[in-house]
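Checklist before submission:
- one chain only
- standard amino acids only
- sequence pasted in full

Submission:
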Amino acid sequence: MQDQTQIFGIRAIIEAINSGEAIDKVFLQKGLRGELFNELESSIRKQGINVSYVPVEKLNRLTKKNHQGAVAQISPIEFHDIETLVLNVMESGKTPLFLLLDQLSDVRNFGAIIRTAECTGVDGIIIQKKGGAPVNGDTIKTSAGAVFKVPICKVDHIKDAVFYMQASGIRVIAATEKTDDTLYNISFKEPCAIIMGSEGRGVSPSVLKVSDARAKLPLLGDIESLNVSVACGAFLYEAVRQRISD
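Returned file contents:
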């Protein structure tokens, strides 16, 4: 495990990428140009690293150092390979339970979900390389350290994880209001993976289309949705309830 840290400066970040550092996200100054900057952008694209173009004021808040228009965040954890993780879980003899997060963007929700996942025995969390919440200090704090206990994998697209789970005999269940089935009508006793969507949009239509089942939480009040971390807890504990009842 590594301590959370930053790399600043265009050339330093290029060298870090080339040396295989686990870079979680790069912040680049809007409007910056130049040969070295173009080389950095090319390296970022080639490695599929999450990148945001931001005003220089944002970079100045991230570090007091001479950042040259580029700041990178190194992940405080080592990410796992999804194929190796799934294979190891399947071979362990336990009934797999995975969690897929489709473009979840809030780091505190992410941390809270990781904490609940650890408490409910989730075997691994799969996130997308781009567009999702980073693993940073807020994630670690909100997870109460669970981020160091639950394996986390990154994939190019959540659909890649869905297809791999299905090919491995794992049923994929999407949490969505776009169904008539509540989670209490769904069996979580067999090997399964639960997909939770983003805070604003939910599970994306393309991912919903390839999932094996859809399930929703019954909402009895006037508010039409729950916080995603709360909803995720309800799904995971229903899976636990069904499995321990055996």
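Reviewer check: The mean pLDDT is 91.
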